[in-house]
Design a protein that fits this description.
about 55 residues, mainly alpha, about 0% strand, globular
């Protein structure tokens, strides 16, 4: 439980790092980086979705 809270906080402030720690270097990381470059909020939403899934 404590680890999930840390992941959620990290997903809000540093979404690509959270995705990398959760899924590794792959398509999810590339998608998240692109979403963060377009606009920050979709990147946060994507990271939160991966953490809570």
């Amino acid at each position: 439980m404590d680890n999930k809270i840390v992941q959620i906080i990290l997903a809000i402030f540093l979404p690509p790092i959270t995705v990398f720690l959760k899924k590794g270097a792959g398509k999810d990381l590339i998608i998240n980086i692109l979403l963060c470059l377009v606009f920050y909020i979709p990147g946060v939403a994507h990271a939160l979705w991966l953490v809570t899934k």
